[in-house]
Specification:
The structure is a single chain. By secondary structure, this protein is an all-alpha fold. 73% of the residues lie in helices and 0% in strands. It has one domain (3-61). The protein contains 2 helices and no strands. This is EamA-like transporter family.
């Protein structure tokens, strides 16, 4: 990950948090696997948490 050292700390943290989620999605698409409901719910929770965190960070700037 050479590009990560040039990213801002917040952006690098988001990339690192989303990496397992994107890996699971890529594996499901590549190998045509069906994801269990538990993994789908976990992925949705990760995405919602990321969006909420980013929205909360940007809100004071407005």
């Amino acid at each position: 990950m050479k590009g990560q050292k040039y990213a801002a700390v917040a952006s690098a943290a988001i990339i690192m948090v989303l990496e397992p989620l994107l890996t699971v999605i890529a594996a499901a698409l590549w190998y045509h696997e069906q994801l269990p409901l538990q993994k789908i719910i976990g992925g949705v929770l990760i995405l919602v948490a990321q969006l909420w965190f980013r929205w909360r960070m940007l809100k004071p700037l407005r």
